[in-house]
Structures are given as structure tokens and as C-alpha cells.
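To close the section, here is one more complete example, presented without commentary so you can practise reading it yourself. The ligand is S-adenosylmethionine.
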Amino acid sequence: MQISDSSSRILAGLLEARTGQQLTMSRRWRIETALSALLRERGINTLDELITILVMGREPSLSQQVVEALLNNETYFFRDRAPFDLLSRYALPELAKRRHATKRIRIWSAGCSTGQEVYSLAMLFAEDPLTWQGWTIDVLGTDVSTACVDRARTGTYTQFEVQRGLGINQMIKWFEETPEGWRAVEALRKAPRFQVHNILEPAPHPSAFDIVLCRNVLLYLSPDKKTLAFERLAGAMAEDGWLMLGAGETVIGNTNKLGADINARGLYRLTGDGSTVEKRQGDRRSATGA
Ligand SMILES: C[S@@+](CC[C@H](N)C(=O)[O-])C[C@H]1O[C@@H](n2cnc3c(N)ncnc32)[C@H](O)[C@@H]1O
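Output:
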């Protein structure tokens, strides 16, 4: 199926306007593959015919479906592993001490796709009942894609999906086979909440999250949209909270509201006054003579 330059520009423009995601020239080959199932389902023969329907505005729900089909939803359980080890080894033990009085932890997975990241977090807590017994663990998963959020809410995955990132023991312990697929057990499904949300909009309420994960979401945002997204994420964090990005992503050059936590590579903290966290930590050390 061929797509004209003007049609691909219209689709790229629609995607960017709704989500901030840029479909650069080198990634426009994705359009045909991404939209082929939707075209079949809707009985539309060509991409140019699709554009005509979109431009005429006859089917408002179609434009949302097109945007969702163009998004990259790649995800799997415990993606990249190391970040989850960092949470278990450093951030969660630290929060167990800091939040001991309230026994409440709030986590936000922004751009959670079909929910594997959220259920991976739920497994971290469920696998350490001695520490977390009696605690309230709020895990919120959000995504701009309604289809992803609907799937995440079911907590149900295909055989292929459930095997990606999970060992056989974890799979059998935390998922049960149902006619619809492998469903997360009740104990895992009770903690997370999911909602549709665009990271370029004000943060979901209530915020002050102890940990915000926004992994593999910002890669294709323009620099100004990245800055806006970091402002939104920073605004949603507790004063002593952390932001975790995907491998190879960084705040550097995009915001001065967040800086690397020198104690934990891969986590970012609020800088407060726009100075770097490294500088504030250095200032604190020299003030205490450490
Ligand atoms: C590549 S997936 C990453 C999923 C998960 N965070 C991970 O690392 O495995 C990126 C997700 O971000 C979502 N996304 C893209 N732009 C978004 C936006 N502006 N607001 C919220 N979610 C967005 C996409 O729908 C997609 O599900």
C-alpha cells in the first residue's frame, strides 16, 4: 500500500498534535504497517481514502483510533531488569524508612502501555510481604491510548506477552490461565488503578508521587514538548520523590527542575531552586563537614 507525502504529513501532524510524538521522515515507513489492521476492520481500501474521511471529519472516533494505532506500545514485564533492581535495592527500602509513619506509598507509571510495568511494580511489593504488610501502595498507570488502558485494566495477557520478562515460577505464581488469556491474580490486580492521561496535560490528581516512572515515552518528543513533559512530571512528584526514565533517556538539556540522584544512577530528583541536585547534595555535605 502506497502513501503520498502529503498524506503521511497529515497523519504525522495528527499524531503530534494529540500526543507530542513526532513521526520523523525516517520512521514514516511504520505508517502502513501500523494502520493496516484498522483499515481492514473499517473496510477502508487505501491510506489516501482514510485521509479523506479524516479530513471530512465524518467519523470523530476514527481519528483517535488512527492516533492510537500509530503509537509505539512496545513493553514487557520487568523491562530492562536493572531499573527494577534499583527500585528494590535502593528506592523502596529508603521509602520504607521515610514513609514509616504514614505507611503509604504512591507510584505513577506515566505511559504505561498495556500495564506490564505496573504489574511488575505490584509484583515487587507482593514478593516482599514482610516489609509491606499493612501498607497502602497506590500504583497509578496512565497512558494516552484508551485501548492500552482498557487492556491494562483487564490484567490479562497472551501466552507470548506473559512469557516476556517473567520466569516460569513468577508466571505461575502471579498469573492464572483463563479462557481470555493469562490473568494477573487478584492479589496483584487490587493495587493498581489505570486512567487515560496525556503527559503533556496537568498531572493526575492527587499527585505528590514518591516514584514516577516515565520510561520509553519521551524519546520522540520535540525538545520543547520534552521540557513541558518534564515540568508536568516534576510537578507531580513529592519533594523527596524520584523520577525514573528509560535506558538512554535523560533530563539533561531539557529541564533544570530535575537532576540526577548521585546516590542512585538512573533516578532523578527535584532540584527545588533550579540548581542541580548534585550541587545541593554537595552544599549539604560541606555544611555538615561530611
Ligand atoms: C514504548 S511504550 C513504553 C511503555 C512502558 N513505559 C515501558 O517502558 O515498557 C510508550 C507508551 O507511551 C504512550 N504515550 C505516548 N505519548 C504519550 C503521551 N503524550 N501521554 C501519555 N502516554 C503517551 C504510548 O501510548 C505507549 O503506550
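Once you have examined the C-alpha cells, check your reading against these statements. The pocket of S-adenosylmethionine is lined by residues 19-21, 71-75, 79, 111-113, 117, 143-145, 148, 198-200, 215-217, 246 (CB under 6 Å). The longest helix spans residues 82-98.
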